[in-house]
Amino acid sequence: ERANLMNMMKLSIKILIQSALSLGRTLDSDFPPLQQFFVVLEHCLKHGLKVKKTFIGQNKSFFGPLELVEKLCPEASDIATSVKNLPELKTAVGRGRAWLYLALMQKKLADYLKVLLDHKHLLSEFYEPDALMMEEEGAVIVGLLVGLNVIDANLCLKGEDLDSQVGVIDFSLYLKETQDNDGKQDGGITAVLDQKHYVEELNRHLSCTVADLQNKIDCLEKTNSKLQEEVSATDRIGSLQEEQQQLKQQNELIRERSEKSVEVGQPLKVTRKSLCKELEKELELQIGMKTEMEIAMKLLEKDTHEKQDTLVALRQQLEEVKAINLQMFHKSQNAESSLQQKTEAIASFEGKTNEMMSSMKQMEE
């Protein structure tokens, strides 16, 4: 994987520099070779990232290592401030892409990444030991990035959907470059196709991850709306309880007044009867309100249990999807190793065939 990514980065940088020099103008974000360069660079920075568990699942973002640059290199604080001041960026991936855009425009991209490589003890918090940024390939790529300082880029971040865009590698650019540089296309095509299989697997995995995260977001939004309804219902129950308490106090006052009025004399019997009727009505109203509150509480408990069951089912589905993704990844690795073994066997057979042909020529002579 590291070798494939390094080769693709070499090709993307070479194509970007050649096309930029041939045009002789300032590049913008719509320039296809520049877009391909950022896609490949993003894959390089994501290689070997450690998984961090969050509330909505697992998260792998390359923006975490880039945030270290501000601490290690004070002159990068302008980039960090600019990224934080962009309100349209909602995710760490979007902020990471904006950071790369700004670093390229400053012509400091190679310098900043070199600072990270010089502090690998800090990078070990974000990357696995065999990640590209932790191995020799990372230093080679940083050296290649120095050549981009000859390019002038003017990238507009406002209006760009950096959060949700999914970068897809266009192999036609790399295939054309390989064919132009080498008349014997077989070796170049084979190398590009090997890289194509690898990146297709990455793109498929990214597409599945994006779809899975979108489904989780939809489920969370629905759950949030239901919880808000439950909170409003709970507030309504509290207000009803307060009203009930006030009615009880009013009934107590009315009862005391009625008792006092009875002590005054018989002419107040009519008033006492009317008061009793009002008390009976108030009591019936309180009983009805209490029944409504009990029904509402039961409905809330039932809805809560259903949500808990749904959450358990969603977690089980998530674990199954993770297992399937891991199984597919292992199968892909096995297929690649089998293909490599067959390629080595073919090369060995070709060598033996050449030896036999030379022996036959010698025997004929």
From TrEMBL:
Domain RUN: 28-160
Keywords annotated in UniProt: Coiled coil
The keyword Cytoplasm is annotated on this UniProt entry: no
Top-level lineage group: Eukaryota
CDD domains: RUN_RUFY1
Coiled coil regions, renumbered to chain: 203-260
GO biological process: protein transport; regulation of endocytosis
GO CC field: cytoplasm
InterPro entries the UniProt entry points to: RUFY1-3, Run_dom, Run_dom_sf, RUN_RUFY1
Alphabetical list of PANTHER family matching this protein: RUN AND FYVE DOMAIN-CONTAINING PROTEIN 1, RUN AND FYVE DOMAIN-CONTAINING PROTEIN 2-LIKE PROTEIN
Full protein name: RUN and FYVE domain-containing protein 1
